[in-house]
C-alpha cells in the first residue's frame, strides 16, 4: 500500500461525509507523505485501518481543540513546575520527553489542564522534530505509590496508540522503587506488544546503554547540568536542528569528499550469536576534524552504535548496526542509512558547540552518504521472523485494580497517621496520669504527717 492509495481513500471518505468540518491544518497532513507513511506503518499497512485512523485522529483533534492549544491557552503555572519537558536525546538521536513523576501527585492538579499540556508538548515536538520519534523518560527516583496516576498513564498510552502514529521510540523507566513494581506490571499489561518491547528499566549504572552521559542529567549520574526553564516555541525555533529526509531521494547523489566509507554503498548483515548485525568503517579524509551523524529510514528497527561522533583528520570509526528483535527482515530490504558529516574546528568541542555547528550549517556544508542493506535471508528465523503482535486491549478491570491499589494505599497511609496520633495522645495521657498520681501520693503523705503532729 502506498501513501497515494491512502490519500485517495481518505479523500473519497471526505466526499461521502461532507459535514466532517475538520480543521484545515489537520487536512494539510493528508498532503504530507511522511505523515501518511507513519499512519501506514502504525496500522501495519492495512489501508482501511489507516484511513479510519486518519479520520479518528482528525475527529479527536477537533473535539479537544488541539490546533488551538498553545502557550496562551495552557496553564503555565503547571508547565513551569517542570513535570513534563523535552530535553536530551537517546542513543538513536530521538528527543527525550521527561516525566518527573515525583513532582506529580494524583488529584492535586486539574486533570483536564494536564491533558492540554501533554497535547501541547506532543504537537510541539511533532513540529520541531519533523515527525521523528520521541522517547518517554519516566524519572521515578524518590517516588511512591501516591505519585502513580493510572488515569494519566493510561491517557499517555492512548495518545501513542490512537492519535500520534509511529511516534514512540522507547519508554525508559529510571530508578523504579520496589514499591511500584506491581503498579508497573499492570501498566506493562496495558501496552501493545510492540510498546512492551520498547520498555526499558534502567538505573544510574545501566542508563548509558540508552542515554549517553552527555545527554543524561546530573541527577541521573550524567554530565548535563540542565535545569528546566520553559522556552517559548518562537524562541526555540531559532535553534531547531535541520531535519534530514532521504527515503525518496535517488541514488544519484554524488559522494562528498570528507569521509570514506567501507563498504561504500552496501551494508552486508550477518547472523552472529542469534543477532543479525552489520558494520561499516568511516574514515575522515578531510584535513580538518569532522562531526558525523547516522540516520536511518526506520530507527525503530535498528540499534546503531555509535549514532554520532567526532573524527580527527585520518581517524577511522567502526559503526555497528544490530537489527532489533521482532521485525520481519523481508520488510527491511528497502531501508537505508544516511551518514552526514560537517567540518568542525577541533575535536574537543562541547556537545553544545557541536549542536550549534550543525544547526547553523547550510546544505552545501554537509556531506551525505547513502548505504543500502543486504540481509542473510536463510538466517532470518533466528532474529527477524517474529511478526509483531497486534495489540489486544486489556479489560478496564486492570485499570480499576491499580486505582483500587492506590486508594487502599492512601487509606492505609491515613490509618497509620491516625495510629501515630493515637499513640501520641496515649503517651500524653499516660504522662499526665503518672504526674497526677504522684501529686495525689504527695498530698496524702503530707496529710498523714500533719495528723501525727
Overall shape: globular
Structural class: alpha/beta
Largest sheet: 5 strands, mixed
The H/E string reads HHHHHEEHEHEHHEHEEEEEEEEEHEH
- Rg over C-alpha atoms, rounded to the nearest angstrom: 29 Å
Query: What is the number of beta strands?
Result: 15
End-to-end span in angstroms? 116 Å
Q: Provide the low-confidence segments as ranges.
A: 237-256, 379-396
Helix tally equals: 12
Question: Helical content, roughly?
Answer: 25-40%
Q: What is the spatial order of strands in the main beta sheet?
A: 1-2-3-4-5
Task: Describe it.
The protein has helices spanning 3-16, 24-28, 33-42, 47-64, 76-79, 111-128, 150-163, 181-190, 193-198, 233-236, 351-360, 396-452; strands spanning 84-89, 95-100, 134-139, 168-174, 199-202, 259-262, 266-268, 270-272, 275-284, 289-296, 302-305, 308-311, 316-323, 336-344, 367-374. With 453 residues, the protein is α/β, with parallel strands linked by helices. The chain has a five-stranded mixed sheet with strand order 1-2-3-4-5. Strands 6, 8, 9, 11 and 13 form a five-stranded antiparallel sheet that branches. A five-stranded mixed sheet has the order 7-15-14-10-12. The chain is globular and about 110 Å long. Helix 6 (111-128) links the parallel strand 2 (95-100) and strand 3. It contains twelve helices and 15 strands. Helix 1 packs across helix 3 and helix 8 (181-190) runs antiparallel to helix 12.
